Structure formats: C-alpha cells, structure tokens
Fold this protein.
Amino acid sequence: MQRHMNLIDGSWVGSDFTVNGNPSDLASPVGEYARGSAADAGAAIAAAQATAPGWARMPLLQRQAILRKAADEITARREELGRLLSSEEGKTLPEGIGEATRAGQIFDFYAGEILRQSGEIISSVRPGIGIEISREPVGVVGIITPWNFPIAIPAWKIAPALAYGNTVVFKPADLVPGCAWALVDILHRAGLPPGVLNLVMGRGSVVGQVMLESPTITAMSFTGSTATGARVAEASARLGRRVQLEMGGKNPLVVLDDADLSVAVDCAVQGAYFSTGQRCTASSRLVVTEGIHDAFVAALTERLGQLTVGHALEAGVQIGPVVDPGQLEQDERYIAIGQQEGAQLVFGGQRVQRSTEGHFLTPALFTEANNTMRIAREEIFGPVACVIRVKDYDEALSVANDTEFGLSSGIVTRSLAHATHFKREAQAGMVMVNLPTAGVDFHVPFGGRKASSLGPREQGRHAVEFFTTVKTAYISAGAP
C-alpha cells in the first residue's frame, strides 16, 4: 500500500501513518496517510510565514498560471479523483465525479479572479490630496475542512487564499486524507513555491490545536461541527485573529398545498437523502401544509422505496454508505430518539447487508413530528428526515424559522406571492424556491446566519472580504 506524506515547506515528510478506510468495503482500505505531529504543524506554520512576503509579491500572471494549471489537471482527472472521493467518503460515483468537477471549476474561477482584483482612487475632501484604496493579503491562513465534501470545500478555501496572495496551512478531516493529498499534490506540481501551501494530515487534537494556538496564523477558515467551531472562534478571539466559520444546519423545506407534488418529492429526496444526507444544507425538516400532507407522505414513501442503497462505486446506486461507524451509530441513536419522542418511523432506518461489508443504512422518514422534538432541532447529519404537519403558510414560515440554525431554507409553491414573501422572511443565508435546499453554484456566496455561520461569506467574489485586508493610502503632491 502506497504511503502518502505531508507536504511541509515543499518537502514530503512523515514518519507515523494511518490507514484510510473505505465505508463501502471495510476489507479494501483506500491508502496509508501520514499522521502529523505538533512539531509538523509548527514547521508548516513557520514555512508559511517565511514564504508569505515573496508569494504576496509574485507577479499576477505567474500566480494565475499556477492556479490555471491546477484547475486543468483537476478537470482532466475528475473521474479518477471522483472515484477516490467516493471510495473514502461514500458518495455515489456520479456525486464524487461531480464534486471533483466542481473543484476544478473553483480553481478556474479564482485563477481569473487574480486578474480581476481592483481598488479605488478617489479625491480627498482636502485640496491637493489623493486617496488610494487597495486590498492586500492577510498573511498566513489556517484551513481546517470536514469529511463530507473532501475536495470541494478544500478547493473553495485554498483557491481564494492563494489567489489573493496568502500562504496556507491546511489540515483536512481525519477520515478523508486521500482527496486532500491529491489536491495538494496537484498544486505542488503546478509550481507553487515551497512553503506557500503546507499539508498537515493528522488529529485535530494535535495538529488543529497547534494551529488554533499559533499567533502566526492571521486568519482561520473552518468548516465542521458547531461545538468545534465555537472553540475555533474562542481561540481566534483571544489572538485577535479573523475567523470564518461554517457549521451546522437544520434546514427546512416548506411544501405548500399548491405545490407541484412531483417537484416537492424530488426536492425532498435530493435535499434530504442524496450524499447520504451528510450535508450541512440537507433538508432534514419537511414542513408540509395539511392539504397536501398525506399525498406528499405517500408519494415520498413510494419514492424512497425505489432508491438503491449500496456500494458507492456500483452503477445504479443512489445512496452510498454512511461515512464511518461513529456516524452510523449517531444516525441510529437519533432514529431511536425520534421513536421515543412519539414520531412515527414510516420508512427505513435499518442497516442492510450488501455483497461487501459496509456502513449501509436505508433512508429514514418520520411523520407526526413537531418542532419541539430533538430530531427536528438537532443536526443528525445522516439520511434521516422528519415531516412536520402545519396548518398554512404562516405557520410553515414560523416553524421554518424556529431553529438556532440558518444556513439554507426552501419552499415549494406555485404562488409568486408566497415565494416572494418567503425569500424575504426566511431566516437563512440561502433560500431555494422549487429547488432542493442542497446544491449551490461555485461562483456565488455560500453561508448562513445564526449558529450556522460566522464571518464573511465563502465562494465567489465575496471571498475577497475574508482573504484580504483593506489599506487606505493618502498621497499629497507636496508644495507646488
């Protein structure tokens, strides 16, 4: 089995390794990857600090060429990378290839952004003085990413960080080092100078802790659990460091009486269950008005019965395995909690056997849920959704907004009035009309409100707000 090392200051290093599992086939591990130490993390931070001034001053065309070359290779290898992704995370192969394709699109976009940077020249209120407003890189950026989007999320953090002239220390989630290593290898061979991008795979309690405590890291971008995000925010506040957090979601999909039933079911299935429900944008609360409730539940249950759960790489599979034993146990624990709370499990929620040993779970659907139940308030992060029956649109909006989270919110309706009102009143960073709550474009802002997000938005041109700092310069021509 090939060993994959960490990249620190342009060199591949590693002495301790761990095997990366395959949730579709426990007997066929993906690879062997370095497990970095606290010393490795410190060395990576020092390397990023040392090379930051030179990278910030590198001519724009040279910087652009590196990102463009990386984008081209990611795109050319999307099927190979997608297969790796599906093997280690459990997404179906089409989903894995789609995510790899998106990573290439992200790097292509930010290669273009390098040449689209702009500033302002304005006149002072004082005669004879000019003002220039420009943006500069923030310095060393720490990036910590989750396991559920193992190449897209690293791409949408690393690409803008590099494009805007920052250096990076990158720690991926323990469960998915393969995609992280492949992405960093592509960027390294694309011509990044030593120390500009440093990969330190390893435990969050070791590598992540060193990153959190380092005053050298001037900005931290984190996607993961709400509890860990709070720790990142607290540590960053002590150091006066800028922080960008993307955390949990408990996203509602409102279905009104006038909805197209097939559209509503499609939105629910795609949003709640695809990617095995392991998305922060998953629609785990299906808020349905009483006039369409029974027909919606019947049609959704029938559709769930048609889905195939199985090995992520097998043709025809719509739902792959849960990522690991811990997540599988969490899903099952919440399914039991839902039943104890009085919700009705009308479909799924059972482990199933396949030709290979894996973490396979049938999609679970609850009815007779209400917004006080834990299954309707806490993020499960699996293929589990609950239907909440409501009287009308006003109650649906109230229930949709009654959550500590605010990432994505959706509505299915033929009413322009209700759609317009919902777009305005939904307490979420992203609103979907007649679309699944999950599934966003790479060139527009991504982020939420309340406990879901903190700091500037990710993706698109809005990423400049986090990865750069503004400088205002005053210029006087001097005495005439």
